[in-house]
Write a structure and sequence with these properties.
Blueprint: H1 3-7, H2 18-24, H3 35-42, H4 46-59, H5 64-76, H6 80-93, H7 98-110, H8 114-127, H9 132-148, E1 151-152, E2 155-156, H10 160-176, H11 181-193, H12 197-210, H13 215-227, H14 231-244, H15 250-261, H16 265-271, H17 277-289, H18 293-306, H19 311-324, H20 330-348, H21 352-365, H22 370-382, H23 386-399, H24 403-428, H25 433-436, H26 440-447, E3 469-473, E4 477-478, H27 487-500, E5 505-507, H28 510-519, H29 530-537, E6 541-550, E7 553-562, E8 568-576, H30 581-596, E9 600-606, E10 611-614, E11 627-636, E12 646-660, E13 665-669, E14 681-684, H31 687-694
Parallel strand pairs: 3-5, 3-6, 4-6
Antiparallel strand pairs: 1-2, 6-7, 7-8, 9-10, 9-14, 10-13, 11-12, 11-14, 12-13
Helix pairs in contact: 3-4, 4-5, 5-6, 6-7, 7-8, 7-9, 8-9, 9-10, 9-11, 10-11, 11-12, 11-13, 12-13, 13-14, 13-15, 14-15, 15-16, 15-17, 16-17, 17-18, 18-19, 20-21, 21-22, 22-23, 22-24, 23-24, 24-26, 27-30
Length: 697
């Protein structure tokens, strides 16, 4: 097997991550092997095959063929340190022949010892200046170096100096043999990475004229043709590569991705590989999209068998099971209990939002489990979200037949209602003695809707709508090919779910966004200005971003934009590693958006000359010590350059929150006698803006 085929295990040339080939290993048993060991390998007896070769080496330490087969065996098994030892021994026995030294260099590269590999190859070229395997391997080494830091959140930006050196090595190989297929493919990759796709096509086609069975020539040709928009030709190229080596998943994955992009989902399902976690996840997503949920469940389960910590696959499995199984089915119950465990774990470390997120998912998976609702009610009560806690307790009373659980729910209901009334009296300086005499069941009905108490704490009869901001979270743009296809939309879903945990936000569903894009005649969010999408959806704010998924981390860049024409309210660049990286990113993003997007409420009443009551409370992210600003909207009958009335906001005064209940706050004004009235607009100031103002900028 030549050096090119071996090196491509660690080098991605078709949009596949650099680590993918190293993890995959080669799928073919070396052709030139000892007959008995080969027979054992064919029957799946790898251990016995290794023992047989080691026995031969022990009996005859100078057997070149045995050492070569042992080296190939270890390399195929990704036992690289042992492969290196075997190749080095083979090199000694073969009197440092050029090809054996190239083998050593290749293993050094796979082990990350690139400088040693480079020194070995350059030393070889000093004696054999036009040794093509060495020249080509040096070319791929430079491409590897160029691409190592190229795949970032900013897109694919290879290092030019390394590309220049790679081109030089491939050109020297072609000087020695103009029909060197490997060197032609290398020149094509250099041209492609330099953003000269038409030139790259010429090199790949030249390689195929020499060798029509070159897997990587077809793969790279397909990728470049897809980039050029020549989709039919690209599909044929991927299909040709797949026919040459069905054991490799990459061509099938590339073809399925192209068909998915073109909206041919049923064909994508048929094309997707049925092995490898990346292929299985992609296939599961396609099956889910075409309504074949049972098959999608099987695909996601296969991914989780390989990596039980893959929370994205777990989330898709939850989604599938909620579609195809009733709430009482054990398949859903086991997932609900896992979410419950995660919620309790998050609650113990005071990660409130993560706990809320997991409690909500547990309830969605098993809404009939009163155990989950009781624990969630207790958690919500501790957070001061009394109305939400009461809602969960009501469900417990409706669902459970357990006398013990009914008593627990009843006791919790009474404690929560009394605490809520006491808090409202303290914050708003009102007396609710007449309500305290009512039965707990009646109090609970009142407290489930805090607006019902509004007349007790305000003087104005001005209608005060609840503060609500409509937000669209657009699917994140996937920078390069991610390990989880569709991860951009999945992150948007999760961020939308977590933003809904903040009652001040109304979040547009991903299905509605997809419908609007389809009606606008576009295939993806990248084809339309985000402000325009927000306008079509009727949202005040649009969240747009990029996501980059590598084998060891997730990176996101997020922009929060006022629709339809800006400005950008906030930018975030976040990264996460390890298990639950996706959910941690979504939760942190929701915290920041909630902090920085200015929710708007209204003044409910004036309590005194220095204080007012507003309908923004703890549930909307407001807490004692926060700053708010009071503004008044005024309609101008004429504005220069406009032939219709315009609306402007006049900043009246700022204030500091001195007390907060679930839905309302008391605000002490900076100016004791301010020209304000009930119904004036109140805006929560983003914390970054408050910090800037404090610094006098």
């Amino acid at each position: 097997m030549n050096s090119f085929k071996r090196f491509l295990i660690v080098l991605a040339l078709a949009g596949i991550s650099l680590g993918a080939f190293a993890a995959a290993g080669r799928l073919r048993v070396p052709e030139n092997t000892i007959e008995a060991a080969e027979s054992l390998m064919e029957t799946g007896s790898a251990v016995r095959a290794e023992e047989r070769i080691l026995t031969i080496v022990k009996e005859n330490p100078s057997d070149l063929r045995a050492w070569r087969d042992l080296a190939h065996f270890y390399e195929d098994a990704d036992r690289l340190e042992e492969a290196l030892t075997a190749y080095q021994r083979l090199e000694e026995l073969a009197a440092h022949t050029p090809n054996s030294r190239v083998d050593v260099a290749r293993i050094l590269i796979r082990l990350g010892r690139e400088d040693e590999a480079e020194a070995t190859l350059k030393d070889l070229l000093a004696s054999y200046p036009f040794h093509r395997p060495a020249l080509n391997l040096l070319g791929w080494l430079e491409i590897r170096r160029s691409g190592a830091k190229a795949r970032t959140i900013r897109g694919f930006q290879p290092e030019e100096n390394a590309l220049t050196r790679a081109e030089k090595y491939f050109s020297r190989a072609l000087e020695a043999e103009e029909r060197d297929t490997e060197a032609l493919i290398g020149r094509g990759v250099v041209a492609w990475w330099r953003k000269r796709p038409e030139r790259a096509v010429q090199f790949f086609q030249a390689a195929l004229e020499i060798d029509t069975k070159s897997y990587w020539a077809w793969m790279n040709l397909g990728s470049v043709l897809k980039e050029l928009g020549r989709y039919e030709e690209a599909e044929k190229a991927f299909a040709s590569a797949d026919r040459l080596d069905p054991g490799r998943p990459y061509a099938a994955m590339a073809r399925a991705a192209l068909l998915r992009y073109l909206g041919r989902l049923r064909e994508a399902v048929a094309a997707a590989p049925t092995f490898g976690t990346q292929g299985e996840f992609s296939r599961g997503m396609d099956l889910l999209a075409v309504g074949r949920e049972e098959e999608a469940e099987t695909a996601f389960l296969k991914v989780l068998e390989t990596n039980p910590e893959d929370e994205i696959a777990l989330n898709r499995l939850e989604r599938v099971r909620m579609k195809i199984y009733p709430a009482t089915d054990p398949a859903r119950l086991v997932l609900a209990r896992r979410r419950l465990e995660w919620a309790e774990e998050a609650e113990r470390v005071r990660d409130t939002l993560r706990a809320f997120f997991n409690y909500r998912l547990a309830v969605k998976l098993a809404p009939q489990l009163s155990e989950v609702r009781l624990k969630m009610a207790r958690f919500l009560s501790k957070e001061g979200l009394f109305s939400s806690a009461i809602e969960q307790l009501r469900h417990v009373e409706e669902l459970t037949r357990s006398q013990h659980e009914r008593l627990v729910a009843s006791d919790m209901m009474e404690v929560i209602t009394r605490n809520a009334l006491a808090e409202m009296e303290a914050v708003h300086h009102v007396s609710l003695d007449d309500l305290k005499e009512k039965p707990t069941s009646e109090l609970a009905k009142i407290l489930e809707k805090p607006d019902a108490l509004e007349s007790r704490i305000r003087l104005s009869v001005t209608p005060v709508p609840p503060p609500l901001l409509r937000i669209a979270v657009l699917p994140y743009r996937e920078v390069l090919a991610p390990r989880h296809v569709g991860i951009g939309r999945i992150l948007a879903e999760w961020l939308g779910e977590t933003l809904r945990l903040h009652p001040g936000f109304s979040v547009v569903s991903q299905d509605e966004i997809a419908r609007v894009l389809k009606s606008a005649g576009v295939r993806s969010v990248e084809e339309l200005d985000p402000g325009r999408i927000g306008e079509l959806l009727g949202t005040s704010v649009v969240i747009q971003g990029d996501i980059f998924e590598s084998p060891d981390r997730l990176v996101t860049v997020t922009r929060v934009i006022t629709a339809p024409k800006g400005p950008i309210l906030a930018r975030y660049r976040l990264a996460a590693k390890g298990s639950q990286a996706m959910s941690r990113l979504a939760l942190e993003l929701s915290r920041r958006v909630s902090r920085d997007v200015p929710l708007k409420g209204r003044i409910v009443r004036r309590f005194g000359s220095e204080e007012v009551t507003v309908n923004l409370g703890r549930a909307h992210g407001l807490a004692p010590g926060d700053t708010v600003v009071v503004v008044r909207r005024e309609q101008e009958l004429f504005a220069p350059g406009l032939d219709w009335p315009s609306i402007r906001e006049k900043r009246l005064v700022t204030g500091r929150v001195v007390g907060a209940t679930e839905e309302y706050s008391e605000v002490k004004l900076d100016t004791p006698v301010a020209p304000i009235r009930a119904g004036d607009l109140v805006r929560r100031e983003p914390k970054e803006r408050r910090k800037t103002a404090a610094n006098g900028t």
